[in-house]
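Intended use. Records like the one below are meant for learning the mapping from a protein sequence to its folded structure. Do not use them to infer anything beyond what is encoded.
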Amino acid sequence: MRGDKAGGGLTSKMHWRHRIQKFYSFGFVALVFVAIGYVLWSSLGFQECIKSCGQYDPTSKHFEKSISTFIIYVPIYRHCIGSYITANNAVITAIGTLVIAVFTTILGIFTVSLARSTRAAADAAKHSADITLTLQSPSLYIRSAHFERAKERPTLVLLGFADVAADLPAIAYIEFENFGLTPAIVRSFCIEWKVVLCLPPNPEYTCLRGYTVGIPRGEVRGMFHDGNTISLTKEELDAIDDGRTKLWVYGYVDYRDFLRRKHRVGFCLSWFLGTGALAAGLTEDKDGPEAYIYQTELPDT
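Structure written out for the chain above:
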């Protein structure tokens, strides 16, 4: 909506600027003619020519009896203007060259200004179109995340943190909701896990899985990778419980929009131990590296 208003405002400004430029151009030409007329009219030689031609030209006497005064003076003015130009040829040529140079400069300035206005209007139209496409595109966000016992899939068994041990391997089950206006067509995803205090600056994705499912607007789909089970030793559990290390779950989801453009949304979660009224669980970790959490458009390969 704002993009459309911005585009319309720039178009209106461009229209008025074009009209002003046309007015300046016509005004300059009119000013040149007025200046030429003033120079001619104020010239004593030109006035003497008018008087002498009016008195001694027998043609004017003949015209005076038959037609209007305006027609009488047309050949007289033509003759005197020609004589004036012939007598002052060098000066008029220099002035004419200067006028042409000034007019060319003004025209160049207007052309550059018009090109800038056109470019600004085109950029505003593109920006408006990009905003419209963004608003219409699907947008995936994590709705919830938890652990499930791997060997009991597809039965949904919600596990607590203490259940994720070596003898009870689990998987991370992550639900994504589409908050966009159009369906998202998921093509693949990746779910990784690490037990470290701090993740590397850049993610390494190895556990990829092809997956095709549509997520309509406002609906939720769960994703898990049963080939990448989570098994923790007692020492790792104790270290996580004491805050000496963290259990991280991270990855991405690739999907296409209604224009078949490819998108990727990255996520990064960690196990929250829970404090007070806040229950324990997998939550988005703000302390995680920025390179793990993103939304980007991928090149179409």
